Fold:
Amino acid sequence: MTDSGFPYLGVLTLAPLVGAVVVACIPRSNAKLAKTVALGWSLAVLALSIVMYVDFQVGGARFQFHESHPWIPTWDARFTFAADGIALVMLMLIAVLVPIVILASWHDVDETERSASVYFALLLAFEFTMIGVFAAADVFLFYVFFEVMLIPMYFIIGSFGGARRQYAAVKFFLYSLVGGLFMLAAVIGLWVLGGHTFDFVKLMDAASGLDTNTARWLFLGFFVAFAIKAPFFPFHTWLPDAGGAAPVGAAALLVGVMDKVGTFGILRYCLPLFPEASRWFAPAALVLAVIGIIYAALLAVGQNDLKRLVSYTSIAHFGFIGIGIFAFTTQGGTGSVLYMVNHGLATGLLFLVAGMFIARRGSALVSDFGGAGKLLPVLAGIMFFAGLASLALPGTAPFVSEFLVLIGTFTVHKAYAVIATAGIILAAAYVLWMIQRTTQGDLNPALTEVPAMQRDITLREKLVVAPLVLLLLLLGFYPKPVTDVINPAIQATMQDVGTTDPAPTAVANGKVGP
Structure:
């Protein structure tokens, strides 16, 4: 059944899977057709997502587009889909990034022994699992998508990645699988103690009756899985290897969307189902998040590989998302979700532009560049913009989200917010160092001997970067269309946790005071 006039989420989830099957059936010899069908299919998913976003009623029911279909009656497991504001903006991020990544990957598997149809089918299959994990409103269904999404990315990295692709693919798979096993144990425990149901809304009521110790153990089962997926320090080591070895387009989805499943899971499942445990664990989570900000930023400064550098910056950014979540303020929570969206756009752009440089130079090492802006002025300018957006320059979308996170955290945890601001300084260091070493300074003579380095941005590459640049500027100056959707869901989540925002400082007789 569905409570909306059209089963948006069911169709949106299944559409990429059908597209993946169609693309996989296209003969290997017709790579161009496979790419065209994949791109067209992803654009159709984007169009449907936009219609759904417009149809979403801000201020209406918390979960909208609800639909539920029988699956495993014995376990009360159902194909149940529903979206709140948090899930909706993440679904839009997926729908925007996938066609951009497909277009950016147009030549990634050309002139090789590998099948283009398989590669683009895997990208669509990955989109299917990503949409499913954000749209699921049944805990068991969520777990299934959470685990199944490993499969297409494992094959993308292992079959189409770089030199260390096998090591990176296995490490990525094992880390995520182990985290998933922790969550599976918690899901089973929740089903046994929660009235033999996987329905998220029913479990919210049932979980309120759990004793304190049980709730804390179940919370940890979910949290470990989500912390690995995000990844939070110290569960982060798989990401630089996977991001460094994956094809650039897949890496943009890996870092831009897939790791958001971790922070989304904390907001969707850990906080509402286990409010007391969330409050109890918050100090430790804040410490881990702040350590992650500083530690990952320091490691990013020392990287000589462009893709690994960008991957480390993402770990630092997830520290900001973490402190915003566990500050338990509406500003911090809204900032965290907005950061998830903006990080996907900014890091996606940075990864894709870095990939354009890597494709031309034939190397991802920063030391193999130097003065490349003299040969590729437009691409260098776009990389500079992407770097500034990544470090949250005012006027770009990440600034708004980072500002909200820090303000929301400062009102309740001043020390954590102050320490986290050091990450902003380090972000400026690693971004500017990267830009200076790759595009500025004296021209590396070796670059003039590489024919591809004489070709600046192409029309296809302009179509790849233009939407991301425009969105980063638009949301930097006018984030209201997104924050209006996020705010009600965050307010409801904070009510579930049982926290309220600190009272504002009163102003009396021209003096500020309590």
The chain has a mean pLDDT of 88. The chain is about 70% helix and 5% strand.
